[in-house]
Amino acid sequence: MAGSAxxxxxxxxxxxxxxHSIGVCYEGGLDEKGRPADTRTPAxxxxxxTLLCSLKxxxxxxxxxxxxxxxxxxxxxxxxxxxxxxxQIKQLGY
Length: 94
Description:
The structure is a single chain. The model has no long low-confidence stretch (mean pLDDT 88). The protein is an all-alpha fold. The protein has helices spanning 42-58, 82-91. The chain contains two helices and no strands. Helix content is 29%, strand content 0%. The radius of gyration is 13 Å and the shape is globular.
């Protein structure tokens, strides 16, 4: 994960959710034809997992959701099943 803003800053990642959420972005999410696809590398998967575990330590009551799971947000991203990473992190006790 490259670059970051302080978690306390209001982001611009999901309209109507910015003031009370932390946006996490990754490079990719589209296949060679521009269609939504899980294009994460093993390094990206590890970095995301590590970051989300760290955020759950800092914000234990926070929910991990993708744009596609937010009411009123019509996006395919993050282009992978967030439920899988959510379950993995829950298994670790976060």
